[in-house]
Model the fold of this input.
Amino acid sequence: MQLVFATNNPNKIKEVQSLVPEYIKLLSLADILCIEDIPETTGTIEGNAKQKADYIKTHYGYDCFADDTGLEVEALNGVPGVDTAHYAGPQRNANDNMDKLLKNLEDKPNRNAQFITVIALHLNGNYYEFTGICKGEITKSKQGEKGFGYDPIFRPEGYEHTFAQIDLELKNKIGHRGLAVKQLIKFLNSYS
Done:
């Protein structure tokens, strides 16, 4: 089975590739020569994942899946949410995003947050959706060098370390993207 993972993020590809069984050949956007920016304009995490998957299916014809992830912070009424990647501006800089979030939480005792990943799958003319949620909290400072995005300031529930301090295997086991990908793989295994 061959599937396009509709992302240009090498970190996401690495995370997902480590979870996908060998019988699934994962193609990136670069592999199918898709160099344009795929729109993400729906205003919801689910909508953006579907929009990206629809774009690849419509314009390139491949069976594919796309994901969208948001970090929802309780004290900020779910912000940054759908704007997670460009919270501090269109430059999509992880350090800028983390700095802005830490500043906005400075006087807030409630640091509860959750990551949510939605995967949209187009397969043989049908559409499917899978969701992974990881609850945790925002730390008061950056901790760790691993991972990407907000990983240095997100501590998953029940753990002492941030996503940036744990190895990829554990992150995939407990993290939002890993949980959504496991649902996808379980579905693909039963499908084939």
In short: The mean pLDDT is 93. The longest helix spans residues 45-60. The radius of gyration is 16 Å. The domain at 2-191 is CATH 3.90.950.10 (Maf protein).
